[in-house]
Write a structure and sequence with these properties.
This protein has about 425 residues and is an alpha/beta fold. About 35% of the residues lie in helices and about 15% in strands. It contains eleven helices and 16 strands. The strands form five sheets. Strands 9-6-5-14-13-12 form a six-stranded parallel beta sheet, covered by helices on one side. Helix 4 (about 155-165) packs across helix 5, helix 5 packs parallel to helix 6 and helix 10 packs parallel to helix 11 (about 405-420). The relative contact order is 0.13.
Length: about 425
């Protein structure tokens, strides 16, 4: 598996000391020049900054609106010469539709093609695959939101951290110990530092200095059900957001939560899709009041959250869910909103592709209406976009442009609306 870099063993690491309101203008990154599948000529590539509830291109003082997608497996595919071309294809096809941001995994903890093979140990070959993803994104003028960990077991996640802790002799009882145990937090911080300070072997630019990175995501869909008060997860968010900012003050930081309202806003618990959602240890308002958090993250999966398949009810939920979060992000939090994941699965036949496009259009329209009023910035990231040849990875949500020309047109039309 290539050159394994392992500067310290797990037992050698200390377990106690963790190391304006802007009116809409032209959307940079979705200009007509990006509507081809060929890379643009090199031009000024400036960082995106937050200005209150909006995002701007710092150098040009131009608003930046996220019109993006998820393709989580880019690093894994880049680690194999046989599948690497699909990384370029995914980014190129997205750029051709006018998309300008990709959210993807910058982690793979243990297991096959792991980036982090053990605490403090990283596979250089896989790291170079991540370098390739970042360099290809830069080549096609595509910003990245790299997620740094997973709440779920896919690609390792917090369960793998707990497993490593147990192997090191740490007394752990739950996967939720990831959020509170000093040893596990030291593992996470070491990994974050390795990622953020990484010098790209292709571009020779440190990730922390590369404007290609739009924002770091602390963890995908964190939950801490063992503490429904939210205190445990809140403390972790505050600590880790501060830590990321301490080593990378340039880039934005977001959490990666699904957007469930919690104990700090009992009057909003009814907005959640069910009663359970308000007791999983997350708290939309409180979480995003943590120092160092720049973007309010929300996911939308009414197809799995709601028990019935009445299409109108799903669209009503999307409207209510989005409007409440947009209002709160603008008025209570004063920060841009990022719909980090949204989609409809076609896997079980519950919904068809026509409804999926109606669902997508509803999400885009809700954001666009608020943006056009100058209320809020940010944007939306479709789950998920695949090139041809990756169909075996489809979880039911994959959009493949070659098979869905009408979806391509929908995304392209949204790009043009954001330009106006």
């Amino acid at each position: 598996m290539g050159d394994m870099r392992c500067p310290l063993t797990a037992t050698a690491w200390s377990t106690t000391t963790p190391r304006i309101s802007l009116l809409p203008y032209v959307l940079l990154g979705v200009a007509s020049s990006t509507m081809s599948t060929e890379p643009e000529a090199e031009e000024e590539w400036a960082a995106v900054e937050r200005r209150g509830a909006h995002l701007v291109m710092a150098a040009a003082e131009r608003p930046f609106i996220i019109h993006g997608f998820n393709t989580y497996w880019l690093m894994s595919f880049a680690a194999d010469e046989a599948t690497r071309p699909r990384v370029t294809a995914a980014i190129s096809e997205a750029a051709g539709a006018g998309l300008n941001v990709c959210r993807t995994w910058a982690f793979n903890d243990g297991g096959y093609r792991a980036l982090q093979t053990a605490p403090f140990c990283y596979d250089e070959e896989v790291f170079q695959a991540l370098d390739f993803v970042v360099s290809e994104a830069r080549r096609y003028k595509m910003r990245l939101i790299p997620a740094l960990c997973n709440n779920w077991e896919d690609y390792g996640g917090k369960a793998q951290y707990v497993s490593w802790g147990k192997e090191a002799g740490v007394d752990l009882t739950s996967d939720d110990d990831f959020f509170s145990d000093p040893t596990l937090k030291s593992y996470y911080k070491a990994f974050v530092e390795a990622i953020v300070t990484r010098i790209n072997t292709i571009t020779n630019v440190a990730y922390k200095d590369d404007p290609t990175i739009l924002a770091w995501e602390l963890i995908n869909e964190p939950r801490c059900s063992s503490d429904p008060s939210g205190d445990t997860l809140q403390a972790w968010i505050e600590e880790m957001a501060s830590y990321v900012k301490s080593i990378d003050p340039l880039h934005l930081v977001e959490i990666g939560v699904e957007g469930y309202y919690g104990p700090s806003t009992p009057e909003l618990l009814l907005v959640n899709p069910d009663d359970y959602s308000g007791h999983v240890g997350t708290d939309f308002i409180r979480n995003h009041q943590a120092l160092g958090i720049d973007l309010a993250s929300v996911h939308i999966y009414s197809d799995t959250w709601l028990p019935d398949s009445i299409e109108e009810k799903h669209l009503q939920f999307v409207n209510t869910w989005m409007q409440q979060h947009i209002d709160d992000a603008a008025n209570l939090l004063g920060m841009p909103i990022v719909i980090g994941e949204f989609g409809v699965s076609l896997k079980d036949g519950k919904f068809d592709s026509e409804f999926r496009e109606t669902f997508m259009q509803t999400v885009y329209s809700n954001f666009l209406n608020s943006w056009e009023r100058g209320m809020i910035g940010g944007g939306c990231l479709l789950w998920q976009l695949f090139p041809e040849g990756a169909e075996h990875m489809d979880d039911g949500y994959a959009v493949i442009f070659a098979n869905s020309p009408s979806t391509f047109n929908l995304l392209s039309n949204h790009s043009r609306k954001l330009e106006c």
